[in-house]
Specification:
single chain; about 250 residues; about 25% strand; 4-stranded antiparallel beta sheet; alpha/beta; about 40% helix
């Protein structure tokens, strides 16, 4: 099986601040990669490099076997790369449906009836179809998170990049989100998910990567990565209990 995404020696600096240094990894189609790391580790920067929002100083990104390093974010979206952001950014004066239709029309290139059908399907997957006519500015946080996901889904992605989509949710609100992301992976959509809520990641991902100061500290089996002494020291702290993460 050929990887859907291959990142080769990506590096990015902002002045003297290193946000990515020689980052390399591959992701197979239909799998989920989780990313953890302390604040400032370069996690969100990495998603920006993959999605084309930022250009690397060096290194390369391959998607579906093609070098897309110099390709714009818009072009990558039409190729099948979608991203949700840590802080939801809906058009608050537009309805939920209109927000998602924008993703279908301008991110996925489906306008008219095709765009309407794609938007409706994305809303159904995200559990928001019953709120389609509600102004986005009136949504509670969980539904704003779902809307962020629905807008990304409306582009009909092969690869979806999730940036702390569970952040701010209560424990009771997590299971439906976890189920939704697991369903995406099971449907064949490849997932890369940054998250600080470790047990949510462990419920979904096939492999886990820990970043520290822009470098890959560990990557592999999720439980083995979480049990790594280096990961515990840099990210989790000496009091971390792996059993708690799996509960």
């Amino acid at each position: 099986m050929s990887p859907i995404l291959e990142v080769k020696a990506l590096s990015k600096r902002f002045g003297k601040v290193v946000t990515a240094e020689d980052v390399s990894f591959i992701v197979d189609p239909g799998t989920a990669l989780g990313i953890v790391g302390p604040n400032g580790a370069g996690k969100s920067t990495l998603l920006s490099l993959i999605s084309g929002v930022l250009a690397p100083d060096s290194g390369a990104v391959y998607f579906d076997g093609k070098d897309i390093t110099g390709t714009s974010a818009g072009a990558r979206s039409t190729m099948g790369i979608a991203r949700s952001f840590q802080i939801p950014r809906p058009f608050v004066d537009m309805t939920v449906f209109e927000n998602v239709y924008v993703g279908a029309a301008f991110g996925g290139g489906n306008q008219g009836q095709a765009g309407y059908d794609t938007a409706a399907e994305a809303l159904e997957i995200a559990g928001l179809l019953h709120l389609a006519d509600v102004p986005a500015g009136r949504l509670r946080l969980l539904d704003r998170k779902r809307l962020e996901l629905a807008r990304a889904l409306a582009t009909q992605p092969k690869l979806i990049l999730l940036d702390e989509i569970a952040g701010g949710l209560t424990e009771k609100e997590l299971p439906p989100l976890i189920e939704m992301i697991s369903g995406l992976r099971d449907s064949g959509v490849t997932v890369i998910w940054i998250e600080h809520i470790v047990h949510a990641l462990l419920a979904v991902v096939d492999q886990l990567m820990c970043l520290a100061v822009g470098r890959v500290l560990a990557i592999g089996d999720p439980r083995e990565v979480m049990a790594s002494p280096e990961v515990i020291e840099v990210y989790l702290g000496s009091t971390f209990d792996l059993g708690e993460a799996a509960s």
